[in-house]
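Encode chain A's predicted structure.
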Amino acid sequence: MPSKFDPQKHHRKSIRLKGYDYSQAGAYFVTLVAQGREPFFGKVVDGEMVLNEAGKMVKVIWEAMPERFPNIELGAFVVMPNHFHAVVIIHTLVGAGLVPAPGFDETGATTRVAPTNPSTLGHIIGAFKSITTHEYITGVDEKGWARFDKRLWQRNYYERIIRNEREMGSVWRYIEANPTMWDADKENLLPG
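Encoded structure for chain A:
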């Protein structure tokens, strides 16, 4: 019999910015981590990420996300052995067209257009995690991929709102250089 809800034990603290509307146009830096930090997606060899079949699947699904969410644009991204970094830019849908995400300036000031689309960052990441998990399970069943314990991805994800072009440049460089920093990465639990 299921236990009763106990708010002391059964709570999840949100790591989202309180009061922020994650459906509004803007740019976001997102990190997802594999459950148990298991290296399901490949390995880093001489500072280069070498994707296995599961890693290639994750990459292909991410690249197809704008087909499911036509109001998004993908920025830099990298599939690492046990995590995934990406920049996702949400544009506002108005009628049949897109209103571009607000521009950034050095002060971080932006112009906002009232969102008319229901695609929040959470919807986008949730769909990505669901689709990749389904495809990964198929890979386990049909191709002998390593099994995972209960879930492929950790329950939550990390995000940061990118507020200006300087931050965008910094995040972009970090993502592109991530494989070269693997030996020092806190997500790297593999012996060096």
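The radius of gyration is 18 Å.
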